[in-house]
Amino acid sequence: MKFMKIMAIALTAVLLLADPLFAQGTGQEGLIRIGKGLGLGLTLLGAGIGLGFIGKSLTESMARQPEIAGQIQQGAIIIAALLEGLALLAVLFTLF
Questions:
Q1: pTM here?
Q2: Domains in the chain, please, with CATH?
């Protein structure tokens, strides 16, 4: 329920801020900016959730088998770097 309230507030903010954007030009620029903003936000949200899952799994794995914590940490760092690279690529595609 809390998620729905946050989404309603975000949608209201987008719609309130869209009016000045539509006043410039033909109106298509405003829609493009809104789309880019939503795409950027969803990209960063997904990357944050992914990194959270990696951190959660990393700590659980190291708690279960502390003798191979170095190998687990090394694998998690590689996965996190790939995720960050993918998120950066998605941000660049969103902005340009």
A1: 0.59
A2: 2-95 (1.20.20.10)
